[in-house]
Amino acid sequence: MKKRIIISFLGLVIMAILPFISVGKIFPENEIPQSSMQKKNIDTNKFLVLDTSSNKIISIDDREFCIGAVAFEMPASFEEEALKAQCIACYTHFSKLRENSKEKYDFSADLSNGEFYRKDISDESRQKISSAVDSVFGQVLTDSDGKLIDVAYHAISSGQTESAKDIFGFESEFLQPVSSAGDVNVSGYLSQKEVSADRFKEIMLGENIKLSGEPETWLGESDRTQSGTVKAIKICDTSISGAKMRELFDLRSANFDIEYSKNKFILTVYGYGHGVGMSQYGADSMAKHGADYKEILHHYYGNCNIKTV
Question: How many structural domains are present in the chain?
Fold first, then answer.
């Protein structure tokens, strides 16, 4: 009788603790239980990245991700204050993706090709970038209500950045055109591409744009943003977007002039990238002239707050 009572008691104890044993199951850092259809609880110490090359979810420590993200975006040779500004811009951008994600991961990237996050950096570069990251780690850009702002950045502006409304189609008080005069002195600010009339015609026909008359009559008026990016350009009777022209002719930006001369079209391109938000070479130029990371961020993102989380 006593033996039966002890066995029954042990059974009750095991049943009582079984749920806690189940809840306490630990999954490897790069695995998420597939049975759950809910978004994982946000861990603000790690980024969960869906690696598109392996289709696995990889967990990356926030600090380590910031180092790799800055290395992806900027040369380590840039001024330390520019690197700090880039760290905060990156951390804000990816933290907002994490905050808004409805998936089991925060965002996706081809990690095998170092997209958004580079691991293959030299010891010297890692040391310099790590130092910059550590000095501002945890700082983000917020609005007056403490919410993370929309952040964008690009390599080289045309001398003035673009508005999010013109380029991305949404309004943001923090992504407005500002001067970035240092960009015009940067190597790579100006580039050119020449395309033969026959090749130009071939590309246009591929887009179902019919050309008539002589090549010198094909080009029409351009509609541009305040900062110079081509919104649309007339090719004969058809309007084509500047973004599409950039894609078709592999241009460094959609801020370009085009002219016809001696049986070829010459495209002169200004800047590199979409032009919205912080210019990375512009930030480096500001730092070289004595600006600290806060001045750089306030210049490119306006009346934002810099907050430590």
Answer: 2
